């Protein structure tokens, strides 16, 4: 019967262990709850640092796929394919449609459509258009785009429309411009639902240019088609626009065309057209999830691989990608996600808070540790006690942080896309693990170091390395790290210098910028440690100043500042770090906001920025100027041409008007003021302003002459004089570089006298006008009046180019300045908590002293004054030095954090410090100090004096 | 004239005034306590520590407050020094009731008139011995150099001129108490009342003896009214008047009572 006892022992043993465990847990919870404030602060600090790290990793991971998918979804297609063997297009089609990356492939044809041709004879001459045979009853010829009905879902992104965007087999879409022309011709209104007759056709090839007769066309006639929608294009950067050549400010053929359902064609009709030289093209839509399979930064590469797969098989094909646009999305998103590194200051501060609060807790429990030691507790048992508390606190923080970060990362993404975000939610386990280990590790190590110094106080003396020796080692280690950081920083800085050009920030410069930022923050922390030492030294040495300020009590204050323990000098380092990181982040934030505002102002160009339909510039200028309150108006004449092999845009302006109306800045021109440059341009009819980039690249300098060729693609050229070098112009953006913010997609523009364009080159129409007003107050009513005009599309649009990729990104993620604002707020909150906690703690420790002073006859008012003065010396000094250091660092770092803050430096990013906000921070800090010390002093009542001085205490 | 001399003159002047006081006001009442009661009320209990104490102290008296531990000696001293207020009853200084003074006036009164010596010294740990002595003078608003020279004289007087720059944690208990004694006298003019709450409580008997000797020597030298408390009979014998505090009441004893064996056994 030996089995019986053992079976009964096991459960009782288990019960015993359970009871012990339970007992330990109750002790732990009692310890934690008896120090509620400290536990709360530790949890707060842990939760904050963990949450911010978690949020950033969850957020980056989730948004990566969310944004790339949404972006791809927002595009019509990502690629089009042409081929000079049109009869083999179906082979290409078969191949492409079977590719796993591809979701749709559509055929597209671009040809012509005729209206009002029914009553005309074959000999009817209708081209040149302004010289038709019968101007009172003309034929209308327009571009016709043939697309399958199903493509309507995808091409829709190109249009703003009126009606119902559908393309069934007897429906057509008509552009607004064409609809108006048809209204004039037919003398009836063309609205969605109107039926209409048309012929889709292709001119018979090899006919001579010049005069065009109706007989040159094979007419495929379609009667009673319904106009389903009338559209205007939005010049989005899409494949359709790229295919039809309508990027940027040059008008797109889509603006003046119809869209016709491919299904309405019989195969014989299509054959006739193809015989006449109509070439099919393929539009390719990809699968978003497959595009980002190899990582978002390789999206363009995935697309290029598809192109390579096609051209490797079909040598006669040519694939054109929407690569620039996709890459700019990747870059812009990359910038914002990289700029999360700017959040690091607040994480550092919160980790510091955790370290400090855990140290304070242990300090307060010094006695407890001593008693435990006396009672015979072994060091490991004491450590175990603290460790189990640490485990419980960390566990609580971890759970809170995790829940909070999932919630916050969704909120950060914008409530409009809340459900979308959680649909895509991705939790990067490995980086979350790493973050947890780092934060909790720092906490644990700092706690053990402190605890160890208590427990081993007796043993300390017998250490082989004496304190002095250890100090020497610390010092040399410190210097070593300092030098290492400086060397690393300089190397990276040199690298960075090489990798940046003046205008745009590349992806690699962003990564360098992140590295530089991290090194810089490390350097700052070490320097701040030095500053704190120096500051504490200075504070001890300036006794005469104290006696000057506070004659009677200066002795006590000076003694308190000198004291080794219970001194506010322990505040210095943290407050220095907090205030300098705070002002650093704030300075970056205000500089960035200022820059964004300035840039918007500059890109707006003038008081009024008027976008119109293509219209005669000089008459529209007059029309605008007739509006009450408008001083001057000026239209931009533009056309494209070439310098060497570079395609450029020519902007013709009236220099003196532009000087008056435009919002010029001192860096608009290189080495000259806008006044000089524009007056010079005015005096020389063949003067041009070219970008400094172009001048350098082509080796030209001011006053040399230069040829511009290929006006409108025709073989002709003119010689010009380089009048000055322009960096950017108000309303037009950079002279060099793609300026997607102003909706300009040509790499280079030159500024010249409008007379050349209007007199020599026959440019008379334009779409962009600037105007100045006499009274800024009236601007809103003037805007209303302008919008009444038929020609006007928009006035002072809030987003200068609504298709700018940045705006797409901002739908999902906050801008960098918002990240900085959140960071500033958090550092401020943490600093306030810290000040409150530390002053409270230090004053608590000094209660007995204050009680003694009161017993000796010191007046409470005097004691209060002394405490305030002493505390404020620390707060003000550290704030002053911290802010000074922080602003200095912001100034120093502006150069290399630029890539994280802005994409293009249209307005030079300069440091801008908002002194009111800085003052506000000082006030908040002082107020917190006041509040925290007040709570202690108020508690110092009469009975407290007696209690503090009692022996039994 | 150096500050030192100035101080000496002032001390002389104080002595002169004290002597005058002694003759004119000898046997004049300094402190009168009437029917003093103090009850500590806490949620747990109601503790009647003092239940109607009445006595009079004349200037120049050296009074010992004798009582077992927990009998309320410290409580009574706190009431006398105005650190605490009584539940009922009244304390008069020179015929002026303490409760008629404002809080500010009480602080001021304490600063000018009362020197404190505590059982556990209560020195400021970050002040040197000299600076500890200086602190009441500085609080009184004297200049630093003046306070320094006055304190130096006082600290020499208690025999610690070689320890002026030592911090409290570098001093023995006896030395700390000497610093505290010097501090209790550090007022210009000298305090009228010296309060010592069990000044020898934490000291060994030999050190205790010398400390008592020092206190009483100084008090008689400057003719200070002195109240000290103790729970030890042999210390009480040093006083000119002895008040026994028992069951919240005061009984006046004559020094001869302490030699009476039967009386002592009745105390225990
Ligand atoms: N602030 C207080 N609150 C409650 N009880 C007190 C307080 N101060 C003293 N006591 C109690 O009053 C009694 C007398 O204390 P005390 O005057 O310090 O005695 P003694 O100095 O004679 O040893 C003691 O029982 C003590 O516990
Ligand atoms: Mg006592």
UniProtKB/TrEMBL annotation, chain A:
What Gene Ontology terms describe where this protein resides (cellular component)?
plasma membrane protein complex
What is the annotated localization of this protein? Cell membrane
Membrane topology listed for this record: Multi-pass membrane protein
Specify where it is mainly localized: membrane
Q: Where is the ABC3 transporter permease C-terminal domain?
A: 343-458, 823-943
- Please name the GO terms of the biological process aspect recorded for this protein, alphabetically: lipoprotein localization to outer membrane
Q: Which domain of life is it from?
A: Archaea
Instruction: State if Transmembrane is listed as a keyword.
Output: yes
Q: Which spans are transmembrane here?
A: 40-60, 340-362, 383-412, 432-455, 476-494, 514-539, 568-588, 816-837, 871-896, 916-937
Name one matching Pfam family.
Answer: FtsX
Say yes or no: keyword tRNA processing present.
no
Provide this UniProt record's keywords sorted from A to Z.
Cell membrane, Membrane, Transmembrane, Transmembrane helix
The entry's protein name is: FtsX-like permease family protein
The organism encoding this protein is: Candidatus Heimdallarchaeum aukensis
